[in-house]
Write a structure and sequence with these properties.
Blueprint lengths: L1 H5 L15 H19 L1 H4 L5 E3 L4 H19 L5 E2 L8 E2 L7 H4 L3 H7 L1 H27 L4 H13 L1 H7 L3 H4 L4 H11 L5 H16 L3 H21 L2 H34 L9 H4 L39 H13 L4 H16 L4 E4 L2 E5 L2 H4 L14 H20 L6 H16 L9 E3 L5 H4 L12 E4 L9 H8 L12 E3 L8 E3 L5 H12 L7 H13 L2 E7 L5 H12 L3 E3 L2 E5 L1 H4 L4
Parallel strand pairs: 7-10
Antiparallel strand pairs: 1-6, 2-3, 4-5, 8-9, 10-12, 11-12
Length: about 600
């Protein structure tokens, strides 16, 4: 009878135990990085077209212009490396202006559907999260075994104060998701059994990074070189086994990358509107020594006012680790000083920290001595580098050192392992909490006029004519660039924000903006002061000559423009009365600027 009671009843299957697999850990880390990036950019996501990072808004407008250019490259087959859609008729060398083609072309569907402003904030978000995820991937697979160690290192590489600072305006600089793989492929070459194949893979990564940001690629190459030298100096025997595969791989990389980049680089350095060397306005940008011990402005412990003299500007806070992290990093190096890897990393980070100080080494804005950058700044390629950005390399080194420190602490064979891990976690919180990211501060910006978005301008502007925004686009007045970007560059504009040869001659040193414009400077002064000048016939003739040079069809002044009335009266002195159309004042100047007999 007992057997009959249980007959036909199957034993209950054991419940599946949920396992924290590698794949799940990876997805959790990637999700954390993405949530953090959305948190940082949340202020802009609330209204991508109407908000921009505070203090300075020119770079986002420039990037949005480049994103719209990518649309024209894909849909109309436009030449990718040069354009006349702004700074007409001279044009702009886009290879020399970081046109982010490797980011803009994949974003074409988003730009077409939602506009360049949405593409911009999406790139910033993915730039932060993608960089953190890429470093986590490389660290977890090749450097450390503890997932927390890789997550800490990836987190700092993606969300360091330097990255948060550039997140305000520079998606090309924070999009560093290829760099961990480039670094790893270089290291693989030192022991590769198939160096040619590995060199060709490296060439593809190098080529893609060149179309994101060449300056960051140059930094990566320099950092790899310094790191390898630091390793070989400590262990010379490594060189005999490493130099052959490394040489073969780098040769293969140089051949393929050189072939792929030969023409773009020719356009960049010898094509129209090419320049050699940066503007004097940024060439001496350097970090203050005190910047390494202060928290970054866009962080929990940051103080924007206190940092004002420690960095060139709010978007170039390339150090700013804070006292606790700076001391912790020094402590990690002292603790792990017997390891070749740690000593090589420390030498690399220190070397580029020194270079980031620029031509004049200072402490709390007081000059101390001349820096080594004084003797390097005129070398080829280095003359196009902003020295403060060498601090980005130091930030990556700190991230890797943090990963190694967590890994070593987690692996300690001590009596009380739980206490060691608790102290490690407490140390990380103490070091990283003051520089925890905050949402980027934003300000509102005027919308693109309805006159532009409703295509009313098309009734006036022909394919070889320009629409002239008032004030004329320049480094400080980039709203007109946003107007053009909103139409996917269907009309040309004069002026703009870009780098060009100082005197308009290919090969001259660079400067921000094109040839000096009399009417542009006049209207910019009126816009900033609100004073209406009284113009004479000579000024009118010169202004008309400039408008003819630009082949201007219409001048457009938004009603919401600051000091709109003084600007309107000034323009009327130049070309006569205008008329209101939708939300702008319009001056049809085609009869004045038509150069046909």
């Amino acid at each position: 009878m007992a057997g009959s009671d249980t007959e036909g009843v199957r034993p209950a299957a054991p419940a599946r135990q949920w396992r924290w697999t590698r794949r799940r850990r990876d997805l959790a880390a990637y999700g954390l990085f993405l949530l953090a990036a959305v948190w940082v950019t949340s202020g802009i996501w609330a209204d991508p077209a109407g908000r921009v990072a505070s203090l300075y808004s020119s770079d986002p407008a420039q990037v949005q212009f480049f994103l719209a250019h990518s649309v024209r490259v894909v849909l109309h087959g436009e030449f990718p490396f040069y354009t006349e859609q702004f700074n007409y008729p001279d044009g702009v060398n886009l290879m020399a202006n970081t046109a982010i083609l490797a980011l803009g072309i994949p974003m074409v569907p988003v730009t077409l559907l939602f506009g360049p402003a949405v593409s911009f904030v999406l790139l910033v978000t993915f730039g932060l999260a993608g960089t953190a995820a890429a470093w986590y991937r490389v660290l977890s697979r090749h450097v450390v075994r503890t997932p927390l160690a890789a997550a800490v290192g990836g987190w700092f590489c993606g969300f360091s104060p330097a990255m948060l600072s550039h997140a305000n305006w520079h998606p090309n600089i924070i999009s560093q998701f290829l760099l961990p793989f480039i670094v790893w492929r270089v290291l693989v070459l030192t022991r590769s059994r198939r160096p040619v194949r590995d060199g060709l893979l490296l060439a593809l990564l190098v080529t893609a990074q060149a179309f994101i940001n060449e300056e960051i690629l140059l930094f990566t190459a320099l950092a790899c070189g310094v790191f390898l030298i630091a390793v070989v100096v400590q262990e010379p025997a490594r060189w005999s086994a490493a130099w052959r595969p490394l040489a073969a791989g780098l040769a293969a990389c140089a051949v393929l990358a050189g072939a792929l980049l030969a023409y773009p680089l020719y356009v960049q350095f010898a094509g129209p509107m090419a320049y050699h060397g940066l503007s004097d306005a940024v060439r001496d940008y350097g970090n203050d020594i005190a910047a390494f011990f202060a928290p970054g402005s866009p962080t929990l412990g940051g103080d924007e006012r206190a940092n004002v003299n420690l960095a060139p500007n709010y978007s170039e806070e390339n150090a700013f680790f804070g006292w606790s992290l700076a001391l912790l990093t020094i402590g990690v190096v002292l603790w792990l000083r017997r390891e070749v890897l740690v000593r090589a990393l420390a030498a690399t980070g220190a070397a580029f920290a020194v270079l980031s100080l620029g031509e004049r080494v200072s402490w709390w804005d007081r000059e101390i001595v001349t820096g080594p950058w004084e003797w390097l700044v005129r070398l080829p390629l280095l003359d196009a580098v902003v020295p403060t950005r060498f601090g980005l390399i130091t930030s990556v080194v700190v991230g890797v050192l943090l990963a190694l420190a967590v890994e070593r602490a987690w692996s300690l064979r001590s009596v009380d392992r739980r206490t060691v891990r608790t102290l490690t976690a407490a140390g990380l919180v103490l070091a990283l909490l003051p520089i925890a990211p905050l949402p980027l501060r934003v300000v509102s910006r005027p919308p693109v006029p309805e006159f532009i978005t409703a295509d009313r301008w098309r009734a006036y502007v022909g394919p070889d004519q320009t629409l002239v925004p008032i004030p004329v686009p320049s480094m400080g007045n980039t709203y007109g660039m946003r107007w053009a970007a909103a139409t996917n560059l269907d009309f040309k504009i004069p002026g703009g924000y870009f780098l060009a040869p100082r005197n308009g001659n290919t090969g001259d040193p660079g400067r921000f903006g094109g040839r000096p414009s009399g009417v542009g400077q006049l209207l910019e002064e009126v816009a900033s002061t609100g004073r209406t000048p009284k113009l004479d016939d000579r000024q009118r003739r010169r202004s008309l000559d400039e408008l003819r040079h630009w082949r201007a069809a219409i001048l457009v002044l938004p009603e919401r423009q600051q000091n709109v009335e003084p600007l309107r009266r000034t323009v009327e002195q130049l070309v006569g009365p205008g008329r209101r159309e939708l939300d702008v004042w319009v001056w049809d100047v085609r009869t004045l600027t038509d150069r046909r007999p």
